[in-house]
Write a structure and sequence with these properties.
Elements (H helix, E strand, L loop, with lengths): L1 H69 L6 H5 L9 H11 L2 E11 L2 E13 L12 E12 L1 E2 L10 E5 L4 E4 L12 H4 E5 L2
Antiparallel strand pairs: 1-2, 2-3, 3-7, 4-5, 5-6
Helix pairs in contact: 1-3
Length: about 200
């Protein structure tokens, strides 16, 4: 009688074991699917950040170059120093290049303004998909993300500064230099990163 009872217990336990194993496998696959989706989203956000920053950095360089050209030949050169003059002609190309480097494509792009500072927003879509999972449709699902990067002047001049005279320029971190339109060379200007900061909008 005892041996028969034990065999019956084993027979009842086996289906429960199979059922529990199935549940554990399903949970494991579900976690894997969510991890795949999270990885795709993170990749998309990184690509969007890179694209927006590339656009803003391209414009920062344009502003710095424009400033160097304007000094001595344009009475409005102080506007360049304030970051108020640029065309942004190369911004989209820079964004496209960085998105492509991150296996993504720019699907939306434009000039933006955050807290009074100019910037660029970029929306991207990954070239890769989330991948096969237990969730239907992920094998053809592309991740999307967007980001905005701004260009912020790091230097200023006294309100009384006159563009036709020597001007002292004071920058963040205590750095300062003088611009004399009558005696100016491009090497007198510091690097563009000293004149303007580029960062993602909060």
């Amino acid at each position: 009688m005892t041996r028969c009872h034990l065999r019956n217990d084993r027979g009842q336990t086996l289906p429960i074991y199979i059922w529990m194993t199935g549940i554990l496998l399903f949970v494991a696959f579900a976690f894997f699917a969510f991890a795949q989706a999270a990885s795709a989203r993170n990749g998309a956000q990184s690509a969007a950040d890179a694209a927006a920053l590339a656009a803003a950095q391209d414009v920062r360089d344009e502003i710095a170059d424009g400033l160097g050209t304007a000094i001595g030949g344009d009475d409005d050169w102080l506007d360049w120093l304030a970051g108020d003059k640029f065309t942004g002609a190369g911004a989209r190309g820079a964004a496209d290049a960085l998105a492509a480097a991150n296996d993504s494509t720019v699907i939306g792009f434009g000039l933006d303004e955050v807290n009074g500072y100019p910037g660029f927003w970029a929306e991207i879509e990954t070239s890769y998909t989330v991948g096969d999972s237990i969730i239907p449709g992920t094998e053809s699902k592309h991740a999307k993300a967007d980001a905005t990067a701004i260009i912020k002047p790091r230097c200023d001049v006294a309100p009384s500064a006159a563009p036709e005279k020597a001007v002292e320029v004071k920058c963040d971190g205590g750095e300062s230099f003088e611009i004399d339109p009558e005696d100016f060379e491009l090497d007198d200007l510091p690097d563009a990163s000293v004149l303007f900061s580029v960062h993602l909008a909060d």
